[in-house]
Specification:
This protein has 246 residues and is of the alpha/beta class. The protein contains nine helices and six strands, in the order αβααβααβαβααββα. It has a six-stranded parallel β-sheet, with helices on both faces. Strand 3, helix 6 and strand 4 form a beta-alpha-beta unit. The termini are far apart. It binds 3-methylbut-3-enyl trihydrogen diphosphate (2 copies) and magnesium ion (MG).
């Protein structure tokens, strides 16, 4: 059964989140349950991306931030890390054309300096190619950790201060937030984590200050368009107070 996007749009109306983050967890367990190697789960996970990106774009969500590889994921066995980077390369090589045709703007969140050179080159090419697009902002968090992102942001500000370009006394919340990798994107409204765990694992810590959370038991390769719609409908019912009274 497909989703009736026009109907869903009407129902969600103003309550559609502008920026959704997803911690795509559970690929390994999905494969293990099937007696398959973990890399098989990562491939199945990649295949789920197309549908979720498409639906986000069709609904009119402005920004979608996907956690693909954390600064802590380097602790995994070398073979698994290599399989993951192989998939990222494949993704950035094969999918960019179609995303571009759909007016999607690709951006990487995370530390580019720590990426293998071939991946870094493909990521930068995808960013440059789609930089002028005005549709969905698709943010892929690769070698991303919120603490590492914060350190890089603080260094940028400190360097500008040391050069005399910035008065440290003028540093405010807006300046810090716009120095993060998500600078210029709308506030994070909804953060979804699949796979049943209820933690952030170093994803968008500052951006999530007033985000709503959806912890979903489904493993990422099983996170269907219908389950995504359930999270969006549930979000639309939440009473967000932002510290005030309502
Ligand atoms: C998420 O799935 C993908 C990455 C972290 C790269 P996992 O690989 O963490 O899958 P589980 O949590 O072990 O099932
Ligand atoms: C979070 O999942 C990172 C990604 C989904 C890319 P992990 O599987 O790495 O998180 P932990 O280790 O369970 O906290
Ligand atoms: Mg996991």
């Amino acid at each position: 059964m497909g989703i009736d996007v026009q109907k869903e749009k009407l129902t969600l109306g103003e309550r559609l989140p502008a920026h959704v983050g997803i911690i795509m967890d559970g690929n390994g367990r999905w494969a293990t349950k099937r007696g398959m190697p973990r890399a098989f789960g990562h491939r199945a996970g990649t295949e789920r991306l197309r549908g979720i990106i498409r639906l986000s774009s069709d609904l009119g969500i402005k920004a979608l931030s996907l956690y693909a590889f954390s600064t802590e994921n380097w602790k995994r066995p070398k073979a698994e890390v290599e399989a993951l980077f192989g998939l990222f390369m494949e993704y950035f090589t094969n999918e960019v054309e179609e995303l571009h045709a759909n007016n999607v703007r690709i951006r990487m969140l995370g530390d580019k300096a720590g990426l293998p050179a071939n991946v870094r080159t493909s990521v930068i090419a995808a960013e440059e190619k789609t930089a002028g697009n005005s549709g969905l902002s698709l943010n892929v968090a690769l070698n991303y950790g919120s603490r590492s992102e914060t350190v890089r942001a603080v260094k940028k500000l400190a360097e500008a201060a040391a050069l005399g370009e910035l008065d440290p006394g003028k540093i405010d919340e807006d300046m810090l937030l716009s120095s993060l990798d998500t600078g210029g994107l709308p506030e994070l409204d909804l953060l979804i984590r699949t796979g049943g765990d209820q933690r952030l694992s170093n994803f968008l810590l500052l951006q999530a200050a007033y985000a709503e959370f959806a912890f979903v038991d489904a493993l990422w390769p099983d996170f269907s368009d219908e389950l995504y719609m359930d999270s969006l409908r549930d979000f639309a019912q939440r009473n967000r107070r932002f510290g005030g009274l309502k």
